[in-house]
């Protein structure tokens, strides 16, 4: 077993088969290889020469961006000083499993390469927090709503291709019903509910679906009203993914029109976490958001007028920012707890000072007892 000098942790950590799909396994195995290389104080260039590749190829291997060749893994393990046959065979077997295609490989004809990594990370995440300004997030979309959104980006695609794209989005939603679903916390801008996607019936069915999903204990939905004014997330929508494995850092996902960005540096993730917390505090509470969604279904037969009336002061269903009081305090504690979970720190819960007992009505406050005659007073002169 190779161990890093002065490092109490084992360089080779066990990776169980249940740790996730191929994307997660590639990241975990890459982290193992990086620890082995650093323990021997081997540079990226030296490791690249061993497998007849550049230092950037080694970097991509260690970050899990590419698959593994069995010959490269065998050469690197030997160069890193791993001579135990059982350990070498276990890591090579893991590399072969990490190179296997995931279930989403069946959709490779319509799945962009820049989005493929996100599907794998989404599959392994334990917490997903997202803020959306235009569409309901894909994990919460109905089939008809997903088709309407897909047609906006691919208006000239044939029906079969549209079916494939919608099928991929619905297949991703299978993680919501598995025995250990991730915690989903969604903040929707009010524009998501005001903007009609598809027909009015499509919008109505989508709002009803959001109401049903909000009943699940692992799904939280908030609406950020226009009344909240400007907010910190002016840059656009984003998602934060958290994983159970210690070798997987939190990832911020930023989707663009034809590409995406994956941010995992701690200082950047912390900035987005702070913005997400502010959004949760400025948005309507989950209870108020659910009440507004119900009013959409109750006040009209078609979706768009109901969406408009939901923001009408006359109807009493206008979305408002979270008011001060116990609801906001409870939401703030929940946000701190979620952030603590994602940053591996315990939430700070301020201690409440004890309340002074109120004097009974009709009774005077007690006076200090006077010393009896001959009794020495305890008060110092």
What does the model show?
It is elongated, with a radius of gyration of 28 Å. Residues about 1-10, about 300-320, about 340-370 and about 375-380 have low confidence and may be disordered. By secondary structure, the protein is of the alpha/beta class. The protein contains 14 helices and 6 strands. It folds into 2 domains: about 15-100, Orthogonal Bundle (434 Repressor (Amino-terminal Domain)), CATH 1.10.260.40; about 105-345, no CATH class. A 6-stranded mixed β-sheet has the order 3-2-1-4-5-6, sandwiched between helices. Strand 4 (about 240) and strand 5 form a beta hairpin. Helix 7 crosses helix 8, helix 10 packs antiparallel against helix 12 and helix 11 (about 265-280) packs antiparallel against helix 14 (about 325-345). Helices cover about 45% and strands about 10% of the residues. The chain has helices spanning about 20-40, 45-50, 55-60, 70-80, 85-100, 115-125, 145-155, 160-170, 190-195, 200-215, 265-280, 285-300, 305-310, 325-345, and strands at about 125-130, 185-190, 220-225, 240, 250-255, 260-265.
């Amino acid at each position: 077993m190779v161990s890093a000098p002065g490092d109490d942790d084992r360089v080779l950590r066990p990776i169980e088969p249940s740790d996730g799909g191929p994307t997660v396994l590639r990241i975990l195995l890459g982290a193992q290889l990086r620890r082995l290389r650093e323990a021997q104080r081997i540079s990226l260039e030296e490791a690249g020469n061993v497998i007849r590749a550049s230092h950037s190829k080694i970097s991509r291997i260690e970050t899990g961006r590419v698959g593994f060749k069995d010959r490269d893994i065998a050469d690197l393990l030997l160069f890193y000083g791993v001579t135990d046959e059982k350990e070498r065979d276990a890591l090579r077997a893991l590399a072969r499993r990490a190179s296997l295609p995931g279930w989403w490989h069946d959709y490779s004809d319509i799945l962009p390469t820049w989005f493929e990594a996100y599907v794998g990370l989404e599959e392994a995440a334990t917490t997903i927090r997202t803020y959306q300004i235009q569409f309901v997030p894909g994990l919460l979309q109905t089939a008809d709503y997903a088709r309407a959104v897909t047609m906006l980006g691919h208006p000239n695609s044939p029906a079969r291709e549209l079916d494939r794209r919608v099928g991929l989005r619905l297949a991703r939603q299978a993680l919501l019903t598995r025995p250990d679903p991730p915690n989903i916390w969604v903040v929707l801008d009010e524009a998501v509910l005001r903007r009609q996607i598809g027909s009015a019936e499509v919008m109505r069915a989508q709002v009803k679906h959001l109401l049903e999903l909000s009943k699940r204990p692992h799904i939280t939905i908030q609406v950020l009203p226009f009344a909240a004014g400007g907010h910190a997330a002016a840059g656009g929508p984003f998602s934060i993914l958290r994983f159970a494995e210690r070798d997987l850092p939190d990832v911020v996902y930023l989707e663009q029109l034809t590409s995406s960005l994956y941010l995992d540096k701690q200082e950047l993730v912390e900035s987005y976490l702070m913005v997400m917390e502010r959004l949760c505090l400025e948005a309507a509470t989950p209870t108020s958001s659910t009440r507004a969604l119900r009013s959409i279904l109750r006040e009209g037969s078609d979706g768009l007028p109901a969406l408009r009336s939901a923001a009408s002061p006359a109807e009493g269903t206008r979305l408002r920012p979270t008011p001060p009081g116990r609801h906001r305090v409870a939401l703030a504690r929940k946000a701190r707890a979620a952030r603590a979970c994602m940053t591996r720190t315990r939430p700070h819960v301020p201690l409440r000072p004890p309340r002074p007992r109120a004097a009974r009505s009709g009774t005077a406050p007690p006076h200090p007892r006077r010393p009896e005659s001959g009794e020495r007073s305890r008060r110092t002169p």
